[in-house]
Amino acid sequence: METVHIEDIIIANQRLKDVVTHTPLQLNQVLSERYDCNVYLKREDLQVVRSFKIRGAFHQISSLSREELNNGIVCASAGNHAQGVAYSCRTLRIQGKIFMPSTTPRQKVDQVEFFGKEYVEVILTGDTFDDSFNEAMNYSNENQKAFIHPFDQEKIIAGQGTVGMEIMNDIEENIDFLFASIGGGGLISGTGTYIKSISPLTKIVGCEPAGAASMKESLKQGKVVELEKIDKFVDGAAVKKPGEIPFEICRNILEDIVLVPEGKICTTILELYNQNAIVAEPAGAMPITALDFYKDEIKGKNVVCIVSGGNNDIGRMQEMRERSLIYEGLQYYFIIQFPQRSGALREFIQEVVGPDDDINRFEYTKKNNKTNGPVLLGIELKRPEDYPGLIKRLEKKGFGYQEINKHESLFHLLI
Questions:
Q1: What is the 3-state secondary structure (H, E, C) of 360-399?
Q2: Contact between residue 282 and residue 233 where contact means Cβ atoms under 8 Å apart
Q3: In a 3-state reduction of DSSP, which class is residue 147?
Q4: Residue 8: helix, strand or coil by DSSP?
Q5: Model confidence over 376-389: pLDDT tens digits?
Q6: CA 292 vs CA 11, 73, 215, 265, 289: distances in Å
Q7: Span between the terminal Cα atoms of the chain, in Å
Q8: Which residues have a Cβ under 8 Å from the Cβ of 120 and sit 6 or more positions away?
Q9: 34-92 pLDDT, tens per residue?
Q10: What are phi and psi of 62, to 5 degrees?
């Protein structure tokens, strides 16, 4: 079975040192005080393409033969790998075809085209990374072009491992815990390999989206498995099936995998922006979110979190705020049966809505010849503990209601 060794990562570092940015390792005061430990952030969001993916992509592509380079390359990506490949194609002046899911945020597609210029062609296909991956593989095989895998090639993993090399070169203390995101597993297997070789007592903790936990399930079953469906929100880590090589490495180096709720990641993204002026994408914020699940174990320890990317589409911020509020128990949606009589709305606002509650959505359609009319209502609370009082007042005043938050299919249909 193929695998990656520390020597491969040292070689990759030599090849990459004049191409990638040696990103800072920063002690974060806000997080250190919150968790009563030393939290260092490895800022791969400050990388030349705003994510670590340039490392593996450039190392793999630049290792190809002259004939393979002249023939052009193919890749599939949900966004960040595509940017790394595009940058590499333009730097090495070779042609690349990049397959991306149709659901990829426009900001990431624009960035791929910006970095690659005339050297790349972007093909949007399928709803998930796995759909576009299959299309890309078919094209690669039919046209005999080298395929640049986002996470399941030795040189890709060795390139990502240079993140770990930089961390170990830049930190003076012993690292007790390293938290890193897992999508296909390239970053954590490369970085973990290097750090474990130098510091075997460091505990490597993987972080996966709760709605796309393919590595956790694979390790549980003892083989690489493909999930039937995933939540695509954490687009940088929404992978149905992890890599074979990362799987073999992860089963040897990982202490644990934390499953991180998507809504909680949104809270972290907003806090990082408001408190630290850090723009992190969902996969990049995931390791910091995971600290909450380890707060007892990390107290008094030295902890490193890899902020793997900062390619966040500003157009998604309202959705992230809403997901955060719902997860924190501050945003609720109801369908309420309003009596079709004068004064009913005033009574609802005065006697049901609390003094600190905010109605942030109200849609009402009057129905002729009916005593009741349905209202789609959104209420933002100031504190989670205000919820029981709101429900109690709703029931006391006799307003018929259905809470949409508790009905997943209805929620996705209406919100």
A1: EEEEECCCCCCCEEEEEEEEECCCHHHHHHHHHHHHHCCC
A2: yes
A3: strand
A4: helix
A5: 999 999 999 999 99
A6: 36, 41, 21, 11, 6
A7: 47
A8: 85, 86, 89, 90, 95, 96, 97, 98, 112, 113
A9: 999 999 999 999 999 999 999 999 999 999 999 999 999 999 997 899 999 999 999 99
A10: -70, -10
Q: Give the residues of the chain that fall short of pLDDT 50.
A: none
Give me the pLDDT at residue 19, please: 95
Asked if residue 182 lies in contact with residue 212, where contact means CB atoms within 8 angstroms, the answer is no
Alpha-carbon span 6 to 4, nearest angstrom: 7
Secondary structure of residue 183 in the 3-state scheme: coil
Q: Tokens standing for 262?
A: 């998507």
Helix axes 53-62, 80-92, angle to 10 degrees: 40
Q: Which SS3 state, helix, strand or coil, does residue 128 take?
A: coil
* Predicted structure pTM score: 0.91
Residue 290 structure tokens: 């995971």
Please tell me the predicted confidence (pLDDT) of residue 268. 97
The DSSP secondary structure of 23-81, one letter per residue, reads --EEE-HHHHHHHTSEEEEEEGGGSTTSBTHHHHHHHHHHTS-HHHHHH-EEEE-SSHH
**Interatomic CA distance for residues 57 and 87, integer angstroms:** 9
Write down the residue that tokens 């890309």 correspond to: 136
Nearest to 291 by CA among 77, 14, 41, 58: 41
